[in-house]
């Protein structure tokens, strides 16, 4: 997992509340067995029209937001079913940060395990960022996980809370596997002693 400390990036405004996981990654794409390639299907039903062509009215198809790594959204982001694919799709597309007033609990856990920083701000603060991202050209935000702040070049500054363990994992770039591998030496020692103990028991029987 890629470590995260500070990111300055274009911010894309998704001015919708109650965005559910079936919109983030529609169910027909859940049959894939890989954990990569889901970015092509992010918000698939919104990004494409009935003919399957990119819908120019959808924000992520707007050239102004190409390459944005920060997504600003409305409250209750990623509600609905508990598919981890939603976090995979966002990360595969290139988003490292989602800013919203609130998130669904299970998605909140899944996102952190996949290197995505979720920033909870007040509805008023999110509205300010949303309006600026919609109206200003090349609007960028800086998100510092180390300082737990969101800032822009126009004087906006807000602090956000983050669990200490989650912060540590994101800064160090540690997912569940990475956390386990930090104890590789101890695990190898345990396995060696266990094998030796089993051999001695077998020999004495």
Structure description:
This protein has 205 residues and is of the alpha/beta class. It folds into two domains: 6-174, Aconitase, domain 4 (Alpha-Beta Barrel), CATH 3.20.19.10; 175-205. It contains eight helices and seven strands; from the N terminus they run E-H-H-E-H-E-H-E-H-E-E-E-H-H-H. The protein starts with 5 loop residues before the first strand and ends with a helix.
Q: Can you tell me the overall shape?
A: globular
CATH architecture of the largest domain: Alpha-Beta Barrel
Structural Rg? 21 Å
**Largest sheet strand order:** 4-3-2-1-5-6-7
Count of all domains = 2
Please mark out the parts with pLDDT under 50 across 5 or more consecutive residues, or reply none. Answer: none
For this structure, what is the CATH class of the largest domain? Answer: Alpha Beta
What is the strand tally?
7
Secondary structure class reads alpha/beta
SSE arrangement, N to C: EHHEHEHEHEEEHHH
Mean pLDDT: 90
């Amino acid at each position: 997992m890629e470590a995260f400390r500070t990111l300055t990036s274009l911010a894309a405004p998704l001015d919708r509340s109650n965005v559910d996981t079936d919109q983030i990654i529609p169910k027909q794409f859940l049959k894939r067995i890989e954990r990569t390639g889901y970015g092509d299907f992010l918000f698939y039903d919104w990004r494409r029209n009935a003919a399957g062509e990119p819908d120019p009215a959808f924000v992520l198809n707007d050239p102004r937001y190409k390459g944005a790594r920060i997504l600003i959204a409305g409250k209750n982001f990623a509600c609905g079913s508990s598919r981890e694919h939603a976090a995979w799709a966002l990360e595969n597309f290139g988003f490292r940060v989602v800013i919203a007033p609130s998130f669904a609990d299970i998605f909140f856990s899944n996102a952190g395990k996949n290197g995505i920083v979720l920033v909870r701000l007040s509805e008023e603060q999110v509205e300010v960022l949303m309006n600026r991202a919609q109206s200003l050209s090349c609007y960028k935000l800086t998100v510092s996980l180390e300082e737990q702040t969101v800032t822009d070049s126009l004087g906006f500054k807000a602090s956000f809370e983050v669990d200490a363990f989650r912060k540590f994992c994101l800064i160090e770039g540690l997912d569940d596997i990475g956390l386990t591998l930090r104890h590789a030496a101890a695990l190898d020692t345990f396995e060696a002693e266990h094998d030796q103990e089993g051999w001695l028991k077998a020999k004495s029987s």
